[in-house]
């Protein structure tokens, strides 16, 4: 019997048994817990169908994750999600399903060895620190497991999920190319929705959201910072600016003409969308990414070209009035004014925070917000004050020890990825993909210093996933070179036939 069971699990992965146990658990909950469990029982057939799809077509679940992660805020804002459902649950659930499928079908996914790299070790450090934060009782309110887990999974655990999912599922050249095009398509879709907002207006739900926003409707209602599917304009502006970095670099380095043109056009579309957000920090994100590429390009020709482009763009924004008739461009240009009062409000808030944080080297605790900290508590103000920055948010929750640990682990991840780009990849076009991901990661980290965008949807999955891809590029370089050679052969043949047709038409 044991032999038969082993054979059965080897052939099926124990899927039917797992589904049967889940169904049995649902029945038990129905008997003991009532109506909520009844709803779960009713949903059991859908769960079974989804489980079958997940095991049969795991990449379909992966692409669903990418799409939902990208548009989840738009769905939530327009009330297209079930009431009371936390938007992070679906994304996190899909990631866990993908990991579970990979573990149960390990024979078909033999890439777990690729996870053992510097990025994993850095994540172990950060996730380990955030786990220890469960013991943090700076506020003197006792240990709150629920609040801690809510904070830890959004600040640390979700990054680990992203790393594992991307390492396992982006495992060959075909999927790498598909993912980059898929991301480009989502970026174009976001820009198209921005164009729709500009020319056809906002939905009723979006108008209601704007009516309660003091940061998106400016200058007496004559200037609206557009946000597309994202949570807000800052999140959108910085995310789409960093996406532009990737597409520009891939476009510059690709040898395949149709890819080059597509990604360069996508990059310009993303830059256009960036300006529609009026997010001033986005310019710094774009500039920082471009400057990092000068270092990673390993090409004097590219370095000189990129530098001249960057300097030319900076001169236009800083020393001319080109585009001054556009309100969004005027707002973006104010980012280059060191005397701009609005841009310096964050500095004043941070000075207030430092007074409180002197007595909280471990921070006030993960997940400790105004819901859990009473008004008479010493750190009540710190739990409710808008941090306006991801780095400040992490500093408030984990203290100077935590923010130092976070910065070190981010530098380790980035340093390892840059080392791979510089010394582990020989193909110029594949190195361009890696360099683009590294530069975008630098850009979004700089954006996180100015706004709370790093752990937001869709940026966390996109940019930590992008950095993860850099670590798996060396494993697929041989396959990439073969793929590129085939595409170039097709390109040359197409050009040859086109030239022959042109010559024939002259006769």
Q: Top keywords for this entry?
A:
507 residues, mainly alpha, two-stranded antiparallel ribbon, 2 strands, globular
Entry summary:
By secondary structure, this protein is mainly α.
Chain-wise SSE layout:
Layout (H helix, E strand, L loop, with lengths): L1 H11 L2 H19 L1 H8 L1 H13 L1 H20 L9 H18 L13 H15 L12 H25 L3 H28 L3 H8 L5 E2 L4 E2 L8 H21 L3 H21 L3 H16 L3 H20 L7 H7 L11 H13 L22 H5 L5 H34 L4 H23 L8 H14 L4 H30 L1
Antiparallel strand pairs: 1-2
Q: How would you explain this protein's 3D organization?
A:
The chain has 507 residues and is mostly helical. 73% of the residues lie in helices and 1% in strands. The chain has helices at residues 2-12, 15-33, 35-42, 44-56, 58-77, 87-104, 118-132, 145-169, 173-200, 204-211, 233-253, 257-277, 281-296, 300-319, 327-333, 345-357, 380-384, 390-423, 428-450, 459-472, 477-506, and strands spanning 217-218, 223-224. Strands 1-2 form a two-stranded antiparallel ribbon. Helix 4 (44-56) packs across helix 5 (58-77). It is globular, with a radius of gyration of 25 Å. Residues 33-38 have low confidence and may be disordered.
DSSP strand count: 2
Helix amount:
over 70%
* H/E topology pattern: HHHHHHHHHHEEHHHHHHHHHHH
First-residue to last-residue Cα separation: 80 Å
Strand order of the largest sheet: 1-2
Q: Count of helical segments?
A: 21
Round the Cα radius of gyration to an integer and report it: 25 Å
What is the mean predicted local confidence, pLDDT? 83
Low-confidence stretches: 33-38
Main pleated sheet: 2 strands, antiparallel
Tell me the fraction of residues in β-strands, as a range: under 5%
């Amino acid at each position: 019997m044991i032999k038969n069971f082993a054979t059965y699990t080897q052939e099926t992965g124990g899927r039917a048994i797992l589904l049967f146990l889940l169904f049995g658990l649902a029945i038990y909950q129905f008997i003991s817990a009532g109506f909520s469990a009844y709803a779960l029982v009713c949903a059991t057939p859908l769960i079974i169908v989804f489980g079958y799809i997940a095991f049969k077509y795991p990449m379909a679940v992966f692409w669903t994750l990418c799409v939902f992660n990208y548009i989840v805020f738009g769905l939530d804002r327009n009330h297209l999600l079930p009431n009371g459902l936390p938007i992070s649950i679906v994304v996190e659930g899909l990631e866990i399903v993908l990991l579970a499928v990979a573990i149960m079908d390990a024979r078909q996914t033999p890439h777990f060895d690729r996870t053992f790299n510097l990025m994993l070790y850095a994540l172990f450090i950060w996730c380990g620190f955030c786990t220890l934060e469960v013991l943090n009782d700076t506020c003197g309110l006792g240990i709150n497991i629920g609040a801690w887990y809510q904070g830890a999974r959004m600040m640390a655990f979700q990054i680990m999920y992203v790393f594992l999912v991307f390492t396992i599922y982006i495992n060959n050249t075909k999927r790498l190319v598909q993912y980059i095009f898929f991301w480009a398509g989502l970026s174009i879709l976001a820009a198209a929705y921005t164009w729709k907002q500009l020319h056809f207006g906002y939905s009723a739900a979006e108008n209601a959201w704007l009516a309660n926003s003091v940061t998106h409707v400016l200058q007496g209602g004559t200037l609206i910072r557009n946000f597309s599917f994202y949570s807000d304009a800052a999140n959108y502006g910085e995310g789409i600016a960093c996406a532009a970095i990737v597409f520009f670099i891939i476009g510059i380095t690709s040898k395949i003409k149709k890819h080059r043109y597509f990604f360069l056009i996508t990059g310009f579309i993303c830059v256009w969308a960036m300006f529609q957000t009026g997010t001033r920090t986005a310019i710094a994100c774009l500039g920082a990414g471009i400057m990092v590429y000068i270092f990673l390009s390993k090409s004097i020709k590219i370095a000189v070209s990129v530098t001249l482009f960057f300097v030319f763009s900076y001169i236009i924004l800083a020393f001319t009035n080109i585009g001054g008739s556009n309100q969004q461009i005027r707002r973006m240009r104010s980012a280059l004014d060191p005397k701009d009062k609005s841009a310096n409000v964050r500095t004043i808030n941070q000075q207030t925070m430092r007074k409180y944080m002197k007595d909280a080297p471990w921070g006030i605790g993960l997940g400790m917000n105004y819901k859990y900290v009473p008004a008479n508590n010493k750190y009540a103000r710190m739990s409710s004050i808008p941090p306006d920055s991801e780095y400040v948010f992490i500093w408030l929750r984990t203290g100077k020890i935590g923010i130092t640990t976070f910065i070190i682990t981010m530098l380790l991840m980035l340093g390892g990825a840059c080392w791979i780009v510089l010394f582990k990849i020989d193909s110029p076009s594949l190195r361009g993909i890696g360099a683009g991901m590294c530069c975008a990661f630098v850009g979004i980290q700089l954006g996180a210093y100015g706004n709370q965008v790093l752990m937001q949807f869709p940026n966390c999955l996109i940019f930590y996933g992008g950095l993860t891809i850099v670590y798996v590029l060396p494993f697929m370089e041989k396959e990439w070179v073969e793929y590129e050679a085939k595409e170039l052969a097709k390109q040359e043949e197409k050009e040859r036939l086109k030239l022959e047709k042109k010559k024939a038409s002259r006769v």
